[in-house]
Design brief:
Strand content: 15-25%
Number of helices: 10
Number of strands: 12
Strand order of the largest sheet: 2-1-3-4-5-10
Shape: globular
Radius of gyration: 19 Å
Structural class: alpha/beta
Low-confidence stretches: 284-292
Oligomer: single chain
């Protein structure tokens, strides 16, 4: 199978390229390869590649950037998706859209399931929900909602905390923001499994269990050999960010369970593996730097 992956330079794109590349022919597309806000450019690239599946991960994922620049957010997240989907139809390809827990309002106190009514509270969430609708309207395809991603390839919430704490810099996170922590490699493997099965539909994809951002950051520090007390927490409503954060955005992977797919492993187990690989990678980079 030939798989085109947009947003290949991003955190999740890195994992998708790695995981799909183990079994399939991958065409990794970054912004340098195609500007998804240009319809003609998207058409030309996909007509040339002729993929069987397009995993569309390209987006502006920063909620604050989206909130402060909604025109840019809509251009990339909504119109860019429309161009990808239209070009895919012309190229005879299926689309797998990477979405987010931010399509919900964060007001529930029990895990969100795929059938829950979305009600996004931010520009970011609204653009992602619009893009979901565009993907769904195209017919058979996939929508995968993920959240709180950590993994190799690009700095993320976990790595940022480790670097700051190791340097003795303050790192303050929300103590009462609850959600899923998801290892990009695990999520990419599950997405590949679903796509290979040809079971189209909407899926939540997250490692089992849930945690606060503070619990996630401190657990990572502990396993990295850094004093967890260097990471402090405060209430979400005191974080002072432009875009609203959801106090509760835990997602249940109900559709995966119904379709018979094994659940992803617990987030803590995945985090421990990531920290082990991260520390090894960091040590390798430190050694290489000292030799130059």
């Amino acid at each position: 199978m030939k798989v085109a992956i947009t947003g290949a330079a991003g955190l999740f794109g890195h994992a998708l390229v790695k995981v799909f590349g183990e079994r399939h022919t991958v065409c990794a597309l970054t912004h340098q390869d195609v500007d998804i806000t240009c319809e003609d450019a998207v058409d030309a690239v996909l007509a040339k590649i002729k993929p069987d599946v397009i995993v569309h991960a390209a987006a502006i994922p920063n909620p604050d950037v989206c909130e402060e620049n909604p025109a840019l957010a809509y251009a990339v997240n909504v119109h860019g998706t429309r161009y990808i989907v239209s070009a895919a139809l012309r190229a005879g390809a299926r689309v797998a859209y990477i979405s987010t827990d931010a399509v919900f309002d964060g007001q529930k106190t029990s895990p969100y399931v795929e059938s829950d009514q979305p009600a996004p509270a931010t520009v970011y969430g609204r653009t992602k929900l619009r893009a979901e609708g565009i993907t769904r309207a195209a017919g058979e395809g996939w929508i995968f909602r993920v959240s709180v991603l950590f993994g190799p390839g690009k700095e993320n919430f976990v790595e940022k905390g480790l670097r700051r704490a190791a340097a003795g810099e303050p790192y303050v996170v929300a103590a009462d923001q609850v959600g899923n922590a998801t290892y990009t490699i695990d999520a990419a493997q599950k997405i590949r499994e679903v796509i290979e099965s040809r079971r189209h539909g909407l899926y939540h994809v997250a490692n089992a269990g849930f945690c606060t951002r503070l619990e996630l950051a401190r657990q990572a520090a502990q396993w990295a050999g850094i004093d967890p007390a260097r990471i402090t927490g405060k209430p979400l409503n005191e974080m002072g960010r432009p875009a609203k954060r959801l106090p509760y955005s835990v997602m249940a992977c109900a559709a995966l369970e119904r379709a018979g797919f094994p659940p992803l492993r617990p987030w803590a187990e995945a985090l421990k593996e990531y920290i082990s690989e991260y520390i090894g990678s960091l040590n390798t980079r430190s050694t290489a730097t000292s030799l130059t």
